[in-house]
Amino acid sequence: MTTLILTVAGADRPGLVAAVADVVDAHRGNWENSSLAELAGTFAGVIEVSVAAEHSEGLQTALRELQGQGLLTLAVLAGSPATDAEAEVLEIRVLGNDRSGIVREISNVLSAHELSIEELATETRDAAMAGGRLFEASVIARVPASVDLDALRRDLERIATEIQVDITLA
User: Fold this and answer.
1) Which terminus in the chain has less CB density within 10 A, N or C?
2) Tens of pLDDT, residues 128-151
3) Which residues form the ACT domain (predicted)?
């Protein structure tokens, strides 16, 4: 089996997911994992598809034809996921007043400790009682066995104080 990673983006409208799913199915692919969302009128996402090696080229060609029809911007990458079997998963939640640089600061700490971000979801919303905007993030990161979790916690606590957000680890 070949694993294809599809990245999709385009103006949001009904039928985008169905068009991609139809092509995947028509070429005997299996839609395995995906993260898709509409953000500010743009539809974007990442899709993992597995397909038998003999159908891979045909599927990739058909997907590129969707792009050529102006349906969406599409990139197809062949690969196989590499994971550290000994790594544990850490969930990090961030909440605070919105300001620029929050994602940069937190992702730099995670990178410095060699954590790999598997999933990142962020949102800003109006702060109901206090006024202004709140920033909220949920991060799922893979932590190699070699990481000093106490040092990671200290660095995240330091950043939380500096940028005035609450960071919780689970």
Assistant:
1) C
2) 777 789 999 999 999 999 999 999
3) 5-79, 91-170
Token reading at 146: 């070699």
In this prediction, residues 16-28 reach a mean pLDDT of: 93
What residues contact 62, with CB distance under 8 A and at least 6 apart?
23, 26, 27
Decide which of 3.40.50.2000, 3.30.70.260, 3.40.50.720, 3.30.300.20 is the CATH code for 2-78: 3.30.70.260
CATH topology (fold) of 88-169: Alpha-Beta Plaits (3.30.70)
Please give the pLDDT value at position 119: 92
Residue type, 159: I
- In the chain, the DSSP E strands lie at 2-11, 30-39, 42-51, 73-78, 88-97, 116-126, 133-143, 165-169
**Amino acid in position 99:** R
| Beta-strand relationship, 88-97 and 30-39 | unpaired
